[in-house]
Design brief:
The complex is a heterodimer. In chain A, 84% of the residues lie in helices and 0% in strands. Chain A is mostly helical. In chain A, helix 10 packs across helix 11. Chain B has a six-stranded mixed β-sheet, with helices on both faces. Chain B has a three-stranded antiparallel β-sheet with strand order 2-1-4, with helices on one face. Classes of the chains: A mainly alpha, B alpha/beta.
């Protein structure tokens, strides 16, 4: 780790990587909390994998892959939401279909891209060390959009997540806010893909919020806690991976998994101790 | 100036697929009436409420609330569901839930106002959950959760308050205090309450609708063994005799 800190002072690309982790953590904490309390993990996974379609098409057209990712994620979020709500189709089937078909489309386009020399691994598993200044700026814009939307409509997002029928009766357009939430998830997925790639993205989206939710019972606190924890997880993952030259994305995800495991063990120990203390009284 | 009735239902019929649930139901409820709906299980009570709330559309006939469609009237109606539509482990406090009643009244953007918070506090005090306002909902008893849902509906400041079996999880003493409270609120709003508890409800309401696919209304003085027998059949008559 000490090698990492000397390198950090020396190399701007590492500073850029840390900044990217910081920015990704903001969206991750806010939207991750909603994903956990609304149980939208599988949905987020489905949206994440369709991103490959957007990136593949972007390569084929020689356009910006991140732009392709944003468009694909938003389209799939809105389509899954609309088909589920309007055509009454089963969510699980829709997720499976979008997940694999999205990836398949991506693979087809990449295979047909002239001079096929794309480093696919970077998009599948992320490479935060390649994050550039425009990438970081784009991430900041995505964060601002997420904070703005959730700040403006927090009441409606919370009410629709908590009790859909009652929210509807209070005049909240629950279908619109469901689709908006999926769109926010789509943007967050694009944020996180820069750090860990699209295959590993669900873990980083869910595990920090799920860890914090073991101990905290208010949505804003879960958001704040998950943001801080996500900063810690991504920094630690990056630091640990640097000296032995391990893939940063995969290291971050292993750290996230370890933190979650630690959280659920700690929760169990604490509740047992409390039960024993109550029994003694 | 004549005041229009707050609920006007005309020749309403509804079926789930082939199974008829409501047939030729007509009902008029006046302003500030305290109206009870009783009937056996699966008699269509909850379905009738859901049609009034515009959560379902009738196959035939019409429902009008507050001189408009149920959907248009929605935010002027407070609703206490029989089965809460939330997960107990959702990370919110009692106060957070009661504040949700302010949606539709409060400004759509940003946070709840100080007026919203004051109205929520008032509603929590009325049903005596103000002392557990900051408690997480996961730890509530059935009775506390039910009172929280009543507070959420009162926080709407509704013109019509609709309650579906609001006292099913509550012991008798708490039930009496809730009915006494509703009686007070009745001076400000029309109250429609569904119950299977025939004897109890008739002490509080002005009028009772006996529902078993079709609806027959009675002023509360008129409920006799005969009407109950017609509604429930002989099983209930035997229970009545034991009293």
């Amino acid at each position: 780790m000490s090698g990492f800190f000397t390198a950090l002072a020396q190399y701007p690309f590492l500073q850029m990587a840390l900044l990217a982790c910081l920015l990704a953590s903001v969206g991750c904490g806010i939207i991750g909390a909603f994903v956990v309390v609304r149980r939208l993990g599988a949905m987020a996974g489905g949206i994440a994998h369709t991103v490959l379609a957007g990136m593949g098409i972007a390569f084929f057209l020689d356009a910006s892959p991140v732009l392709g990712a944003i468009i694909a994620a938003l389209i799939s979020a809105v389509l899954i939401g609309l088909i589920k709500l309007r055509w009454r189709q089963d969510e699980e089937v829709l997720i499976a279909a979008f997940w694999s078909v999205g990836m398949a489309i991506g693979v087809l386009f990449i295979s047909q891209t002239p001079g096929y020399n794309v480093n696919l691994m970077n998009y599948l598993f992320g490479n935060v060390l390649l994050v550039s200044e425009p990438d970081v700026l784009r991430m900041a814009v995505l964060d601002i959009v997420i904070i703005f939307m959730v700040g403006l409509f927090y009441k409606q997002f919370l009410a629709a997540a908590f009790d859909e029928e009652f929210a509807l009766l209070r005049g909240v357009n629950v279908e619109l806010f469901y689709i908006l939430m999926l769109a926010m998830i789509a943007l967050t997925v694009v944020l996180l893909i820069q750090i860990v790639g699209l295959i590993l993205v669900i873990a980083l989206l869910i595990l920090p919020a799920a860890s914090v939710a073991q101990f905290v019972a208010s949505l804003p606190r879960i958001m704040a806690g998950a943001t801080c924890l996500s900063v810690g997880i991504t920094f630690l993952g990056l630091g640990l991976s640097y000296t032995p030259d391990l893939p940063a994305g995969a290291t971050v995800i292993v750290v996230a998994g370890a933190v979650y495991l630690g959280a659920i063990i700690l929760k169990r120990v604490l509740s047992r101790r409390r039960k024993r203390a109550l029994a003694r009284q | 100036m004549t005041t229009r009735p707050v609920v006007e239902i005309e020749d309403l019929s509804f079926s789930y697929g082939e199974v008829p649930v409501l047939e030729h139901v007509s009902l008029t409820i006046g302003k500030e009436e305290f109206f009870g709906i009783i009937g056996p299980n699966a008699s269509g009570k909850s379905t009738l409420l859901r049609l009034m709330l515009g959560l379902m559309e009738p196959d035939r006939g019409s429902v009008r609330l507050l001189d408009t469609s149920p959907r248009q009237a929605r935010t002027r109606v407070g609703y206490v569901p029989q089965h809460p539509g939330y997960r107990r482990e959702f990370p919110v406090s009692v106060r957070d839930v009661v504040l949700m009643g302010r949606l539709g009244v409060t400004a759509p953007l940003g946070r709840y106002s100080s007026l919203d918070r004051a109205k929520a506090r008032e509603a929590m005090q009325a049903v005596q959950v103000d002392d557990i306002a900051d408690r997480n909902i996961a730890g509530l008893s059935g009775g506390q959760a039910q009172r929280m849902l009543i507070a959420r509906a009162l926080a709407c400041e509704p013109e019509i308050l609709i309650l579906d079996e609001p006292t099913s999880n509550i012991d008798l003493r708490a039930e009496e205090s809730i009915f006494a409270l509703l009686k007070q609120y009745n001076a400000r709003m029309t109250i429609i309450i569904v119950s299977h508890d025939v004897a109890f409800i008739s002490a509080y309401v002005n009028r009772v609708g006996c529902l078993n696919r079709t609806l027959v209304c009675h002023a509360t003085g008129d409920i006799s063994g005969k009407t109950i027998e017609e509604l429930y059949g002989t099983d209930v008559k035997m229970i009545q005799h034991r009293h």
